[in-house]
Structure formats: structure tokens, C-alpha cells
Amino acid sequence: MYKGNLVRLRAFEQEDLEANHQYVNDAETALAMLRGFPLPASFSDEQQWLSQQTSYTHGEYQFAIENMDGVMVGRCGLTKIDWKNRSADAGIMIGAPWRGKGYGTDAMRVLCDFSFRQMNIHHLKVAVLAFNEAAIRCYLRCGFRKEGVLREDVFRNGRYTDVVLLGILEEEWKPQAQA
Predict the structure, then answer these.
(1) Strand 123-129 with 87-94, pairing
(2) CB-based contact 146:167 (threshold 8 Å)
(3) CA-CA-CA-CA torsion for 132, 136, 141, 146, nearest 10 degrees?
(4) Which residue positions in the chain have pLDDT lower than 70?
(5) What distance in Å separates the CA atoms of residue 62 and residue 34, rounded to the nearest whole number?
(6) Phi/psi class of residue 100: alpha, beta or left (left: φ > 0; alpha: ψ in -120 to 50)?
(7) Is residue 30 within a helix (H) or strand (E), and if so which, with residue range?
(8) What angle do CA 158, 49, 157 make, to 5 degrees?
(9) Strand-by-strand arrangement of the 87-94 sheet
């Protein structure tokens, strides 16, 4: 378990299934997070996803995010890990009732620290739909820098939207770790 000021990152447990299912099926969450079709996930879909989250997974590592009261407030993790180049995609989802309380920023700081200091990752990357301003602010607060824009890359709500690419390098994180 990895601890921040507001949250802990821990392994998923079976008890997380219902909250996770609720969070991923929130329409606002699906529209802001998913690049593909924002389809609802069935309970069995989430059960299957949860059953695949293990510390023995290779190439994808996911954490449940819980607040200091032990309530699961979201999830975060690393995907597309490239061990040769020491890079990975990071991602985070905070459940609708828990947004705006600082949990996302704290969880992302813990995930960055884990990635750089425990996994020896050199470059963390994220791709965010341009209208998801809260997520962009979260990543910028954690030290990520804008690396580019994929113009009109995703079709959402009847129109094309840009995808903002952000990243942080290991040496850029070191000052953050001291804070």
C-alpha cells in the first residue's frame, strides 16, 4: 500500500466491485475518459476486469484509490509499459461523488513517485480529451508538461475534439518528491 496525504493506493479487492461498477458507468466519467465508444459496462464486465487486476500482471498495473477513511474513491494505474525505453501511460479515474476534493492530484503524485522510485520508469505519459480541464489541471499540478496535441482526434458529443498529450520525466519528478 502506498500512501499520500489524502489517499492510499492499494490492490483491488472483491469488495471494490460495486463502487468501481458505479464509477465507470457514470455518464460524465465515460464521456471524459474513454477514447472509444462511451458504452456502459455490465457488472460482469467489471467483475472480469477486476479479476484480471493482480500484482502478477505484466504490462499493466492498477491500483484502487481509497481515502483515509478506507472508502474506495477511484482507481489509477500504468498501462502500455515499455521496459526497453522505460516509459508508461498513466491514468486515473475518481468517482463522481469524490471529485474536487484533491484525491486525484494526491493519487497521481503517489503513482508518479511509485513509478519513478520503485519501477524505474523514465517517462510517464497521458492523453486527455481537451475538454477535460479538471484532469489537465490535475496533471499540470503534478508536474506534467504539455507535449503536444492530437487535433480533432476523438469524436465526442457530435463533434471532434483535440487530445492533449502531457508527460513528465523522471528528473522532473525529483523536485516534486521532495515537496
Answers:
(1) parallel
(2) no
(3) -170
(4) 54-58, 175-179
(5) 17
(6) left
(7) helix 27-33
(8) 5
(9) 2-3, 7-10, 61-67, 72-82, 87-94, 123-129, 159-169, 145-156
Crossing angle of helices 103-117 and 133-141, in 10° steps, is 50
Q: Which pTM does this prediction carry?
A: 0.90
Cell (9 digits) for 2: 502506498
pLDDT at 173: 93
CB atoms within 10 A of CB 155: 11
Q: Are 127 and 148 in contact (CB under 8 A)?
A: no
pLDDT tens column, 5-38: 999 999 988 898 888 888 888 888 888 887 888 7
Tens of pLDDT along 125-139? 999 999 999 999 999
3-state secondary structure of 68: coil
